What we know:
Oligomer: single chain
Helix content: 55-70%
Number of domains: 1
Order of helices and strands: H
Distance between the termini: 40 Å
Strand content: under 5%
Number of strands: 0
Shape: elongated
Structural class: mainly alpha
Mean pLDDT: 81
Amino acid sequence: MTAPGEREAEPRYAAEERGLFGWARALYLGICDTAQDMLDEGRREASVAYDEAWVRFEKKTRNRRRKR
Length: 68
């Protein structure tokens, strides 16, 4: 179910595809989508952890990090 204002994702393959090739392609695309979601979530969490580490460092040493 999508939130109001969001579009549903269009499938990457046509509904007419049948047989072994269609199943293999669906499996492959499902694995790729899952892997991409995992990488995106890992990057988000790494960024949060990086910022939290700087906050702890700044509290401990009272040294501020330089803004780039």
